[in-house]
């Protein structure tokens, strides 16, 4: 109750900001994108991560509002980085089922200018039903028509069938960090990740590994043919200004 009321005030007072975690080409280690992750800059409790507010936001129908703020701010920062000469091609933002079903989403896509291919929406694997969901397929088609790329997030953690996922023809598939963590020590886990990468490659889908915590993991994933890497081995999520400094230092 308390957090629910505070959330409304926080949205009015504009306390939500994106942090950014860079993503790297697995072979060249060039920065190929960044994921925007919501943070609540709480006036007394400090910086809060989504585990502290997402479930309340979902329950009180506020998560679409948070998604909208993060999307707009992520685009603002991308434009600023590019204006400062950084060649980062795109940002990814997380999108809730709530926002996906919200018509204001398409209003804002019409209102806000962005280059096609410069924004991806990460859809949690768990937002799929077992049956290919007609309204989801329709929403995804509209997003693509509006120039948004689709990414399947946390792949391997949910229960959606590979067939229903492939029906969405996503541009990227992100392998869940729980599958990535054991690849160094477990042959069978490594083979499983290899199979996912194989499926992605055969379907023309880029594979991004999340939760890449060591350079050994990075090397294994590169050798398995994974396209892009994201994780603490390279960088933790950081504020927009720190992200710009990071890109400068990385070059
Ligand atoms: O780093 P981290 O604690 O930021 O993120 C935890 C989870 O919160 C992520 O896995 C992601 O699914 C979710 N999340 C982060 N930012 C957003 C956001 O802007 N919108 C939504 N809907 N989920 C987010
Ligand atoms: O949207 P998604 O669930 O993929 O968000 C990624 C989550 O994973 C965020 O909470 C982010 O802070 C976290 N994260 C990013 N890199 C790493 C990593 O290397 N290890 C771990 N354990 N978590 C990570
Ligand atoms: Na995500
Ligand atoms: Mn994820």
Structural notes for this entry:
One of its GO terms (cellular component) is membrane. Its main location: membrane. GO terms for molecular function: catalytic activity. This protein is an alpha/beta fold and 251 residues long. It has a single domain, classed as EAL domain (TIM Barrel), CATH 3.20.20.450. It has 11 helices and 9 strands. It has helices spanning 2-12, 54-59, 63-83, 97-100, 104-111, 134-145, 162-166, 177-180, 187-202, 215-223, 240-250; strands at residues 16-25, 31-42, 46-48, 91-95, 119-124, 149-155, 172-175, 206-209, 228-229. An 8-stranded mixed beta barrel has the order 1-2-4-5-6-7-8-9, surrounded by 5 helices. Strand 5 (119-124), helix 6 and strand 6 form a beta-alpha-beta unit. The radius of gyration is 18 Å and the shape is globular. The N and C termini lie far apart (47 Å). The relative contact order is 0.14. The model has no long low-confidence stretch (mean pLDDT 93). The protein binds guanosine-5'-monophosphate (G) (2 copies), sodium ion (NA) and manganese (II) ion (MN). The site of one guanosine-5'-monophosphate has 12 residues, from strand 2 and helix 3.
